[in-house]
Amino acid sequence: MTDKTMTPDAVVGRLRSGMTLGIGGWGSRRKPMALVRALLRSGITDLTVVSYGGPDIGLLAAAGKIRKLVTAFTTLDSIPLEPHFRAARERGAFQLVELDEAMFMQGLTAGAQRLPFLPIRAGLGSDVLRVNPQLRTVTSPYEDGEELVAVPALRLDAALVHLNRADRLGNAQYLGPDPYFDDLFCEAADTAYVSCERIVESSELTEHAAPQTMLISRHAVTGVTETPKGAHFTSCVPDYGRDEPFQKAYVAAAGDPDAWKEFEDRFLTGTEQDYQTAVQTWHKEQR
After folding, report:
1. Smallest Cα–Cα separation from 151: which of 162, 133, 165, 136?
2. DSSP secondary-structure letter at 127?
């Protein structure tokens, strides 16, 4: 048995510029934002990021840390288009590979199974193949002879995900309505790091929840870090919902360079505890 607990800064200390980094969650839901904020405080850059994107992509794009993005979308859910992502794309700040959601999942599955590709019908007859000329099709070797898209594996150097609970060994549990694809991100990566709302004893993980909620197994996890409110301002149901007022403030600031500088200075220059304290103070000011 190995204790895999570490701090967010220790997690980021194991990452390097130029890596392919997978980030779990979905849009503005259960993103490992404390780890993203730790990444912002580092000198790491030139990243290929693989994500069902949300503010993780926006913040990394605003900081100029992305060289290439592989995504199915980049949204804040209640606000359709992530503003920093849009601005970065408008100025051609990074290379974009945009896949259908199912193709993206198939790519992660191929990566997790260490296969070069997996076939899928999604994408056929759409512009996905036109805008991604590197994609190839294959013909079924059986009687049907069907043409299918060969989605290449999405292999990751490292993955960052956020779950509700975990134990010190790396077993991790979601308690919300949707597992997303955090297990595939971890299994497709050479190293995987789980942040969680609370580290508990292994026996507690299934004390009040079904075994199926144990999404991630320790064999796929390199490190675990406890980061209460670590998904803020995205949701981490049932521990908390999305902080919609703060997300609106984030979007408003993103549209103005001076306002964004103020936002960065207030929320993103200090430690994670500084961030959480600044958010609490901001909410008191809004009353």
Report:
1. 136
2. T
